Amino acid sequence: MFRLLKLMTLAPGHFHAALVLKRALHGVHHRTHVYAPLDGDTIAYLARVAAFNLRRDAPTVWEVDMRAGADYLERFAREQPGNTVVISGRNRPKIDLMRLAVGNCLHVIADKPWIVDHADFPKLEALFRDAELRDVLVGDVLTERYEITNWLQREFVRDPDLFGAWQTGTPASPALDLRSVHSLKKTVNGAPLVRPWWWFDPDIAGDAMADVGTHLADLAVWLVSPDQAVDYATQIHMLSAHRTPLFLSEDEFRQVTRLPGYPPELQPRVANGRLDYAGTSTATFTLRGVHVGLSTGWEFEAESGDTHQSCARGSRATISVRQQPDGRAELFVAATDPAEHATVLAKLRNKCDILQRDFSGMSVTDRGTEAQVMIPESWRAGHEEHFGAVMEEFVRYFHSPRMVPPWERPNALARYYITTKAVEMARAAG
């Protein structure tokens, strides 16, 4: 018997809570029940959902059943108008909210990060045990898997004729190098993003590696061990981690929060009029013997917006995603041995010909020392559109639970082991 997915949104403190509703999906009821405190975060969430309903092109028809108040969590625990919970808000309490939902036999789709400290790792393991016991889904909002350059990079890495085997690399020159830079000041859904004050408190939001670093850790596992389960206890060895702060002036803080100044909660992190923010985090580790390097950082504002770089080195070819000056990510392939350029170019063209079945219009341009994969505009989508793709996949799993890959749960543990251990090591290093 077909049943609709009925959403309940819990404490939507992050703008991603609204982005999963950006487009209507078949099999999802048009009413969402929201349990939250009546605060600025909730009001901002409602404004974003209303904007989706009021837009000219493909408007949504969401109805919001608002259950706001100081007792929202108690009401959520005893009421069950839906069967699936959306959680995207303050990071530190997220794992406890997820366990509460799963304990009530509710499915969960939760934005990253699920945990920000390694001390909470046992809670994550318990979450998966509880979810399996109660036969419910827990899904992560891993939008970077839906970026076309990342998807194609994974396809090429999985082709031994093109990529070969993974190089081992070294800590100084990892075989897989993933880097991202994010802007605090940016536009979302056509409007300037207003960030809550707690975003700047690592005790609530976590360090950069624990938060946005989740995407890099996921891509690392996704690329090095595609479609295979990773045992974090035996197949991941953390080597080093570091943290460099980003200092924000009070004027910059005002611009991104719309607050008059630093709130009392952040005063301990203010020195000489500047706020110590999470800044840049790095981590180096081995994954199934392959050296991996992650680097994720924040800037106040970047001309090209958020950026992503990825370099995967194989015995036959290096597959790279590089952000261009215009902000567009492009995919490049270079022969590991320059003398094999023509051979690798031929194999790449053959691979792209095979992919034409799904990605018509894709071609290859020889750039001399490397080749560029020319991706049709129709296959590109903005970051905000990826949230719809995440929800679409989750809805498929909701209606067909056996479709969930068996490696998803162990690899979720793997990515959060990487991020939280990196934070732990960086803090220990001072």
UniProtKB/TrEMBL annotation:
Pfam families attached to this UniProt entry: Oxidoreduct_C
Residues annotated as domain Putative oxidoreductase C-terminal: 152-426
Protein name: Putative oxidoreductase C-terminal domain-containing protein
Organism: Frigoriglobus tundricola
